[in-house]
Specification:
homodimer, alpha/beta, eight-stranded mixed sheet, three-stranded antiparallel sheet, 14 helices, 13 strands
Chain lengths: ~425, ~425
Amino acid sequence: MVKNFLNLTQEECQREYDKLIFDYENFKSKNLKLDMSRGKPETRQLDLSLKMLDEVNSRSDFKTLGGIDLRNYGICDGLPEMKKFISSVTGVDEKYFIVGGNSSLSMMFDAISFFMIHGSREQKPWCKQEKIKFLCPAPGYDRHFSICEYFGIEMITVKMNKDGPDMDFVEDITKNDSSVKGIWCVPKYSNPQGIVYSDEVVKRFANLKPKAKDFKIFWDNAYFMHDLSSETETLTDILEECKKNRNEEMPIVFYSTSKITFPGAGVAFLACRGENLENLRKMYSIKTVGFDKINQIRHLKFLKNKSNLYNHMQKHREILKPKFELVLKLLESEFKDNPILKWNSPKGGYFISVDTCSGCAKETVRLCSEAGVILTKAGSTFPYGKDPYDTNIRLAPTYPNIKDLGLAVKLFCLCTKLAFLKKKLGLCN
Amino acid sequence: MVKNFLNLTQEECQREYDKLIFDYENFKSKNLKLDMSRGKPETRQLDLSLKMLDEVNSRSDFKTLGGIDLRNYGICDGLPEMKKFISSVTGVDEKYFIVGGNSSLSMMFDAISFFMIHGSREQKPWCKQEKIKFLCPAPGYDRHFSICEYFGIEMITVKMNKDGPDMDFVEDITKNDSSVKGIWCVPKYSNPQGIVYSDEVVKRFANLKPKAKDFKIFWDNAYFMHDLSSETETLTDILEECKKNRNEEMPIVFYSTSKITFPGAGVAFLACRGENLENLRKMYSIKTVGFDKINQIRHLKFLKNKSNLYNHMQKHREILKPKFELVLKLLESEFKDNPILKWNSPKGGYFISVDTCSGCAKETVRLCSEAGVILTKAGSTFPYGKDPYDTNIRLAPTYPNIKDLGLAVKLFCLCTKLAFLKKKLGLCN
């Protein structure tokens, strides 16, 4: 029978602790070595795209529709065929795309770098302005925050609601503070909470009236194809909505096949309109003589078309779904009647976000690590790595096999309880 | 019999012109459509690396020596095996390398971008300093100059001597002007002149005493393997020499396989030491979760080792050498006794650099273009696209087949003469 730890006396806490610490030592003796820290696909998922490597070989035809040899320099902003493909999948007109290299993160970095050096909409370059601030819905993606830190951009945490960032706050601060130049969004199956921005939230984004003329929305649609059920959640088209509201210079949208084919060798995409598109296209024409077009055609031949891509994602889902179900089942059985942990049940994406009681996340992660299970560093889902209440932990269930995952999550549940009890007993440093 | 145009009377000029313009119209009627503008490998060269595409396929082993799956995220600064390979070829210790994506130009851009945002050696970021200047040995590579223009870096032209840039000038200006922060070098088979920097020049570089503590040498060793004869020219190791002179923070060296395997799908490398290495490695760990390791291993399996790489380059040479010989033979036969054109005879690289008489380069290129042969834009070998005497033209003989090349060069010779005569006759606009 599950006890509700919130109701325990100090004495009961001690008794519970003594019992659990015994289980914990037991775990330690297993010498586990598991990594649940990053949103990495597992081997069977990588195997799903193996055949892609055979699509281009020494007997392939390397002429594009335009008669250009794919193996040579040129076509800096991507193969037209690849733009057609991503357009058919995303619904965004092909003319707004730049097809990049293997990393959408790099394209985000490049875009910010552009604004640092050149600015936009006749405003001073960001590096020449006194202070640049970005809004960071949190919990969020640590690599977005690292890019801000790199560029010396001050981060302001924005609360996440069930349907997206707290738009009252976003509207208010962008309207009043001209140093707020951007916001990071993972609008579909957000990292780590799996939240899908509602139609209303997207429309409020598109309708922002920022004081900064050069305000940008970084719309990292990393999980646009990563449903965990057979029904996809719909996400309103930010580019289209912004255009309607004469805000076409705000959004820059990013996609990637990293978690569709190979994380190290996928293809990244960027879509935007107007001046942004012109500027970023020009920037890439200076920065490179072209991205890897052979890898683009390899992807195109393998992924083929929208319906084939959906079939491919279904295979990913078949591998991932049981893992998410297992984690949720274990959390449910351990914490349903012991509300010292809260969690979300995502319909897509790569993570399960959990919240411990205040001040328990770091210790939970530490205890797990000491017993051989690496979790994402506590705090890393917040700007500067500082979770104000030390509660959020990002669980990444995709990489370990299901047996290891079960063990790891059992250990995690145990450590969550231990951390809570230690805090209550005053045993923490 | 070849006439020396320098000795012609006005009347003789007119007669010569009337004769040549007839030949020119004849050329025009051929409706040529040839491109000699960029240093692109031709199809047979691309075919040399076709087998590389078979090296990695669905039956490959994707574990690295370290047990990591190449298809997944990680190993941000490149496969250790790839570092070993490039080290064995270049003689630079593997520990100084970052293995990148498909574009060394991007890595140069990224490095400058880093110094713009962060600076180095405790100096202010370049974007916060009043003015940044770069030395640009010219004729040089237009894409280097474009990067400077992009970042708002003022360019100062440096004369090229037979053994490298004019080091008296370089020493003098770097010693006295603290806003001079960098220099672009293509030290082996320079673009476009094919000059190899002498040991003395490299040592003088290494021994610079720049007033700017944050002075950097961008050492773009693009043609390190691109000999046109079976004997390679030796180039002194700039990293080693700089280290000896306590200048290890100056040089950043770039290599690429773009013209070894595929221009669009090669592998780029960067080598540097000390703070530079630490900073750029950190920058990439923020900018990307890793470059394309599958393409790295594809290269490694195909290029194998130093001696195999030499064999491979020999095959390139067999295709390229006759083209260079043809161009040189035609230039020789047309201008040996008519010194209105001067040219170099490179021992490697991708170009033949020619100098027309003062004020004739643009018109020569224009005339060629009107008759269907595209040359590199006149002026583009100089900063801001401005050749002070309008003399230099970069011929890129690699891309056309040998028959087309012969035609194109004959037209070029004709246009050179026409442009000279037009100028002498006052027929230019």
